[in-house]
Amino acid sequence: MARAISTRRKLAFTAIGWLVGLVIFFPILWTVLTSFKTEGEAIASPPHFLFFDWTLQNYFEVQSRSNYFKHMWNSVVISFGSTFIGLAIAIPAAWAMAFSPTKRTKDIMMWMLSTKMLPSVGVLVPIYLLFRDWGLLDTRLGLVIVLTMINLPIIVWMLYTYFKEIPGEILEASRMDGASLAKEIIYVLTPMAVPGIASTLLLNIILAWNEAFWTLNLSAANAAPLSAFIASYSSPEGLFWAKLSAASTLAIAPILILGWFSQRQLVRGLTFGAVK
Amino acid sequence: MGSITLEKVSKSFGTTKVIPEIDLEIADGEFVVFVGPSGCGKSTLLRIIAGLEDATSGAIHIDGRDATREAPAKRGLSMVFQSYALYPHMSVYGNIAFPLKMAGEAKSTIDDKVRSAAGVLNLTDYLDRKPRQLSGGQRQRVAIGRAIVRQPKAFLFDEPLSNLDAALRVNMRLEISELHHQLKTTMVYVTHDQVEAMTMADKIVVLNAGRIEQVGSPLDLYRSPKNLFVAGFIGSPKMNLIAGAAAAKENATTIGARPEHIGLSKTEGPWQGTVTVVEHLGADTFVHADVDDVGPVTARAPGEFLVKHGERVFLTPDAEKIYRFGADGDAL
Question: What is this structure's pTM?
Answer without folding.
Answer: 0.78
